[in-house]
Specification:
Layout lengths: L2 E5 L4 H12 L3 E6 L12 E4 L5 H7 L6 E4 L7 H4 L5 H21 L4 E7 L29 H20 L2 E7 L2 E2 L12 H11 L5 E5 L5 E2 L2 E2 H12 L7 E3 L5 E2 H12 L4 E5 L13 H7 L7 H19 L1
Parallel strand pairs: 1-2, 1-4, 2-3, 4-5, 5-6, 6-11, 7-10, 8-13
Antiparallel strand pairs: 9-12
Helix pairs in contact: 1-7, 4-5, 6-8, 6-10, 8-10
Length: 321
């Protein structure tokens, strides 16, 4: 039986990936500081431990694996990443995880390892126009991410590529663009925009007012978790190294995003625009390369993903009340 190792298996994307790998018939080990928050893990083996600790990494990588998926990182939404208050923790924690994982995989002669980078590593100067952001993979340099989170992701991309060149490993690198969906964080400060709006709108009564950081004219694209997992597996099992974008090209303003969630909820709410961390003015996945190399592109409209996510968040809130 083929074996997979999922690092960050207690998180949103990692827990969904474990489920998919099990459906594919693989034996799966998950590793994380915590178990999945919203459902029981289906991993065959789960190690609860801190991947910043080399001894935990050695326990996790105690045998050969056919596929390793490195999703573990210190991250969150705009309220966590863009304030500047967590920069040192973000850079230290994620860097230590990646350094240790690569070294332990090298010692076990593990070749194929997927690394989840982020669109946050793209230069700020290419994302100032909300209507025409440039996020083509070859636009990464000269580098100028708008956050230390983005700088760490860029460093780690280069780290994985260096291990590939120098130690015969086969890294597969993806740049995620705003992955969302069911069983994702929706409160507490680390949630991303789709989940935050689902929570706010589900908690509001028709005619109420909800808050939004900034003027809402900043643009983004959002990819549902099911599409993300499909792309991750296709990339990992391909002969294409990356880096490559995994995201949607359906760009919307944040105002439009909130309006779509209201449409799903059947509510008409006012928006109070307040100061807060916003990130870059425009960001949208460029899928030219992934279509060319993997013959794949997302097929689900944003509205459908928001519908599923809203129903899940609303259900969580109703059960609590």
């Amino acid at each position: 039986m083929r074996k997979a190792l999922v690092l960050g298996a207690g998180g949103f994307i990692g827990s969904h990936l474990v489920k998919r790998l099990k459906k594919d018939g693989m034996w799966v080990r998950g590793v994380d500081l915590k178990f999945p928050e919203f459902s029981e893990t289906v991993a065959d083996d789960f190690i609860q431990g801190d991947l910043r600790d080399m001894q935990v990494c050695e326990r996790a990588v105690d045998q050969r694996f056919d596929e390793v998926y490195q999703l573990a990182a210190d991250m969150g939404g705009a309220g966590y990443i863009f304030t500047g208050d967590n920069d040192a923790d973000i850079m230290y924690n994620s860097s230590m995880i990646n350094l240790h994982i690569l070294e332990t995989c090298k010692r076990r002669n593990i070749k194929r390892i997927f690394y989840s980078s982020s669109a946050c590593m793209y230069p700020e100067y290419n994302q100032l126009d909300p209507d025409n952001p440039n996020c083509a993979e070859d636009s990464a340099y000269p580098a100028n991410p708008d956050s230390e989170y983005g700088w760490e992701k860029l460093f780690s991309e280069r780290l994985y590529l260096a291990y590939g060149r120098n130690h015969g490993m086969e890294p597969r690198i993806a740049r995620f663009h705003n992955i969302f969906g069911e069983e994702g964080t929706y409160e507490g400060g680390k949630e991303k925009a789709p989940a935050a709006f689902c929570r706010k709108i589900a908690s509001a009564t028709d005619g109420d007012t909800i808050e939004m950081w900034g003027d809402g004219a900043q643009t983004r694209s959002f990819l549902h978790i099911d599409e993300c997992i499909e792309a991750v597996l296709r990339l990992t099992r391909s002969e294409f190294q990356g880096p490559v974008n995994i995201g949607s090209e359906e760009m919307v303003t944040i105002n439009q995003l909130a309006g779509m969630v209201m449409e799903v909820a059947g509510k008409n709410l006012e928006i109070n625009h307040i100061p807060g961390p916003e990130g870059v003015r425009g960001r949208n996945s460029d899928n030219t390369l992934i279509k060319d190399k993997l013959g794949w592109a997302p097929s689900e409209p944003l509205l459908e993903g928001l519908r599923k996510t809203y129903q899940w968040v609303e259900g969580r809130l109703h059960r609590r009340n």
